[in-house]
Amino acid sequence: xxxxxxxxxxxxxxxxxxxxxxxxxxxxxxxxxxxxxxxxxxxxxxxxxxxxxxxxxxxxxxxxxxxxxxxxxxxxxxxxxxxxxxxxxxxxxxxxxxxxxxxxxxxxxxxxxxxx
Amino acid sequence: xxxxxxxxxxxxxxxxxxxxxxxxxxxxxxxxxxxxxxxxxxxxxxxxxxxxxxxxxxxxxxxxxxxxxxxxxxxxxxxxxxxxxxxxxxxxxxxxxxxxxxxxxxxxxxxxxxxx
Lengths: 116, 116
Fold this sequence. Notes:
Helix content of chain A is 0%, strand content 49%. Chain A has no helices and 12 strands. By secondary structure, chain A is mainly β. By secondary structure, chain B is mainly beta. In chain B, 0% of the residues lie in helices and 52% in strands. Chain B has no helices and 11 strands. Chain B has strands at residues 4-7, 10-13, 19-25, 32-38, 44-51, 57-58, 67-73, 76-81, 90-97, 106-107, 111-115. Chain B is globular and about 40 Å long. The relative contact order of chain B is 0.33. Chains A and B meet through strand 5, strand 6 and strand 11 of A and strand 5 and strand 9 of B.
């Protein structure tokens, strides 16, 4: 069965620290990959996405992610976090399965707390 | 562009009553809409996928008679929680994809349902 795993449940960092959140998906052929962020009390927002091409994708707010096909990974990174990055981060994968449209499988989420 | 709205944003109802939640794509035609449920501090759980004019496809374990989904037009899908009970209290989120074939989902702001 298709699955998505985020390794870190809760990450606590100080401002200016570097961030890397892990995301792995189970083998399943062609995939589209997404990172979403959910700020406290707000709805999901797309940070970045990978469909094809350059495996290093840049998103909003200084975030980037690298698709490593051999490792089935799509880790999220940011060189220097800010207090305002405190939020829940979700990795999501669309396994391009016929007749399932854009069905997304979400990871468990990682709560990021940035201390000022 | 690609804005999805939900109404209401919050609803409180008594046990045994039914509640309808609307999901609208405001500036695009949504070929497919998805309904998710999110428990506190947890990930999004896909409940069902609906395509305009056809019956919704429910995920395993989701009661289709309890969670009625209607996708009457290319811009509107509704989720009706029938005979609601306190355990149905949750955050319900819809999303929609357009017809461009990218399978990117645009998320609504969610509806907080509290059943007393």
